[in-house]
């Protein structure tokens, strides 16, 4: 089966897509790097839908288009396994559990003025997530690093990411460096493919007229659509976009409400973009939550559908293939940097350190499913906190 041809659409494959991504949507704590690691564990190591090399190509493409990377990986992988229905259901099932959880929290927040704490669960889960991500980076790195040049690019990106350099600049810079070095040895007509790969269409903006409690539904929808269509980077970049639009430009939220919304997106499983669900509910109830959620995730489905057919052309062109190789190792460098930063806040004492080590041993030596490891980490964290009183 070629890169451009999805697996035949059949009920068994589609049901498998639904099961896998519903599960990942429920256990997907830890942010995009952790989500990517869990997806690799499920679709490469355990189910063998695709190889590590192809998984890396899909990861590289998600890093080149705007939107939440892990959601776009779910959409890509759903398409690979079950065609167009898989594309839709893969993304929807990954997003769905988080949306439901965030809606419940938003309802409690609006009615009781508080966000329920989940730190007692995260205390045990996050050290396990560190082990899962570290193992995935190691395995993907062996497939991605095809020579000294790519190893150096990955390490440089890791260092620059830790120093605070812009993520998007590092991704495109890593790809450009590999292209320049390789094209000094051999020229190729790849400019058209690169231009097509990067020249994805934009989204037109407008204004709506329907209003609820002073919030224009059309403006709410189009603002989140703009964010979903243009945002690169981490949850911190999302925070900047949301603050500029909803606190400063529209004046619909306070800084405190915005921070509460981002905190909910970070402590619930699944993509952090479900922050939009929380904000939509706070501003305009259930209708606002639905509009905000659809708007911020819709561009991801469109961009994946547009970019996936380009993969065969990219791999068929030496220059474009070199660019994707550079983006792949740069993406791994960014994952490593995020993992290091997460580890500093996740491994805070002897207990969490022991959890991370134990999870790593069980994952590497016994091949335990990451879902069971995460569930075990949650139970261990809660039990330890209860014992401490």
Structure explained in plain terms:
Strands 1-2 form a two-stranded antiparallel sheet. Helix 5 crosses helix 15 (350-365). It has helices at 11-27, 32-46, 52-64, 69-112, 119-144, 148-162, 167-183, 191-198, 217-230, 235-249, 255-267, 275-307, 310-316, 318-346, 350-365, 370-388, and strands spanning 211-212, 215-216. The chain has 389 residues and is an all-alpha fold. Strand 1 and strand 2 form a beta hairpin. The termini are far apart. The longest helix has 44 residues, at 69-112. Helix content is 77%, strand content 1%. The chain has two domains: 11-199 and 305-388, no CATH class; 211-304. The protein has 16 helices and two strands. The model is unreliable at 1-5 and 188-212 (pLDDT under 50).
Mean pLDDT: 80
Radius of gyration, whole Å: 21 Å
List the strand order in the largest sheet.
Answer: 1-2
Care to count the β-strands? 2
Number of helices: 16
Instruction: Please state the oligomeric state of the protein chains shown.
Output: single chain
Poorly predicted runs are 1-5, 188-212
Main sheet overview: 2 strands, antiparallel
- Report the structural category: mainly alpha
Q: What proportion of the residues is helical, as a percent range?
A: over 70%
Number of domains: 2
Overall, the morphology is globular
Strand residues, percent: under 5%
N-to-C order of helices and strands:
HHHHHHHHEEHHHHHHHH
